[in-house]
Design a protein that fits this description.
By secondary structure, the protein is α+β, with helices and mostly antiparallel strands. The protein has 13 helices and 12 strands. A 4-stranded mixed beta sheet has the order 9-10-11-12, sandwiched between helices.
Length: 295
């Protein structure tokens, strides 16, 4: 049991217990003695019930039977896309699971749709994105896709192929549209999320976020950079740069960038979220004027 549990996040199922030649009575005795702890029907923790998050995920998958895969938000956590403690599993065909686990039934779970992460059966990164497109709001899906784009397992063509395998998914058109736009980079605040969503809603070019520009011998960081137009957008939250030295440092940086041909625009949370149409119109006018012909 210990050998099995060591490779399975401290969890064993009836198959391993039978392989260890334990009878039903022997299993019952070990449960009573605290050597096994029942997690779900036919799934046990060995030694103690204090499982890691991955132990809980593995147990949930085992509880849903052969061919089951961690999926949706649970898969997103395994792939490092979005934190979640939710237990979600996709199963082939029609099957029920424990009430603590959200079970999704599917008729399509081929090789392109499955993977293993940290010894846990999981939907592939491409299938996970397809599933998340059905359940996440647009801004959250944008952020997840930006994270996925940095993963070594990410392949745009595989995502397209998985979507082809799943006709009729209501999130597919949005995900396909997002796959056709360049990645903005990692966001670091709700204001950056809101600004990126504003650009996409307004069909503006997608800026690079939190990128660096060489100004003489040093690098300065831009919150958002429209490189082709040489436009920098600084996103100022309520607590940002409220000291006099920081205020003057920002203006010195703006003029240094202007000397290199960059135009700097500054937007606050109130403007991005409260006046999105006006901000979009201003950005479009500036970018149209500064973008090279034909871009």
């Amino acid at each position: 049991m210990a050998r099995f549990a060591a490779h399975q996040h401290g969890v064993v199922g009836l198959a391993e217990l039978r392989a260890a030649r334990l009878t039903g009575r022997a299993i019952t005795r070990r449960v009573a003695a605290g050597r096994l702890h029942r997690l779900f029907p036919g799934v046990y923790a060995v030694g103690h019930p204090r499982l890691t998050p991955d132990g809980r995920r593995y147990a949930a998958v085992r509880a849903c039977g052969p061919g089951a895969r961690a999926s949706h938000l649970m898969a997103s956590a395994l792939w490092g896309l979005r934190a979640s403690a939710k237990l979600e599993v996709t199963v082939p065909g029609r099957r029920r699971g424990p009430r603590e686990v959200v079970v999704h039934e599917t008729r399509v779970l081929g090789e392109a749709h499955i993977a293993v992460v940290r010894n846990i059966p999981v939907t592939s990164l491409a299938r996970t994105l397809a599933d998340l497109a059905d359940v996440l709001a647009e801004d959250r899906l944008e952020r997840v896709l930006d994270h996925a784009g940095r993963h070594s397992a990410f392949d745009r063509r595989q995502v397209e192929a998985v979507l082809d395998d799943l006709p009729g998914r209501h999130g597919a058109p949005l995900l396909r549209a997002m796959l056709g736009t360049p990645s903005a980079g990692m966001t670091r605040s709700a204001l950056e999320d809101a600004f990126l969503a504003l650009c996409r809603r307004g069909a503006l070019p997608v800026p690079r976020l939190n990128t660096h520009i060489a100004v003489g011998p040093r690098l300065v960081e831009a919150d958002a950079l429209f490189a082709d137009a040489q436009v920098v957008v600084e996103l100022d939250g309520a607590q940002t740069h409220d000291s006099t030295p920081a205020f003057h440092a920002d203006r010195r940086r703006d003029t240094a960038l202007a000397a290199l041909g960059f135009q700097t625009l500054r937007y606050t949370w109130d403007r991005v979220t409260g006046e999105p149409e006006a901000v979009t119109a201003e950005l479009r006018a500036v970018l149209t004027r500064r973008l090279p012909a034909g871009r």
